[in-house]
């Protein structure tokens, strides 16, 4: 790092240490992200494969995700208090805190999926005309892209997540419609259909959190708040 101050030995070293702390915070957040993503993957694999072991693993991950959230938040708030960052560093810390919360909620939604899937495994099989595999794949894709944009600091990549959210919303509506029809035609499948609706809704909410992460990356990189906007003007 190049320093133009008169006394570089006194001023550059703390600055280098501060940048190292920011890098460590980003690593902590990415580790949290990997755990949340793994939990969501296990929830969907457990649901699609009717694998109770995977579903239990999701619930076991919840405590680790909560602990990771506390650790990231604590470090981010400490850096804000001690360093009083400005401009892009302040935006980064604010984005970290918000992204951290979204990752924790992705974990919560994944636990909800696992709980509903576990209930479905204990019910009589119902021939429901819906396949959540494609919806799960799209949700996982949104998370991967959002997290890669965070890793790379790539606002253009983050922006691509926003367009996918509309597709996920449409899939959720289609599942809801199909399950309502199934209940009307086969009232004995009501519980199975309602659990399927809730799983679909959890996936849609995870997609919303992935979208939030992408928006926060854009805010960090460009200082632009794109919430509730349909498009982002090119810089």
State the CATH topology.
Methane Monooxygenase Hydroxylase, Chain G, domain 1
Low-confidence stretches: 1-10, 230-235
Beta-strand proportion: under 5%
The profile of the biggest β sheet is: none
Q: Oligomeric form of this entry?
A: single chain
| Fourth-level CATH superfamily | Phosphate transport system protein phou homolog 2, domain 2
- Write the CATH architecture name: Up-down Bundle
Structural class: mainly alpha
CATH class: Mainly Alpha
Distance between the termini: 27 Å
Helix-strand topology string: HHHHHH
The overall strand count is 0
Helix count, DSSP H or I runs of 4 or more residues: 6
User: Which range best describes the helical content: under 10%, 10-25%, 25-40%, 40-55%, 55-70% or over 70%?
Assistant: over 70%
Task: Detail the topology: elements first, then pairings.
Elements: H1 8-49, H2 52-83, H3 87-121, H4 133-152, H5 155-185, H6 190-222
Helix pairs in contact: 1-2, 1-3, 1-4, 2-3, 3-6, 4-5, 4-6, 5-6
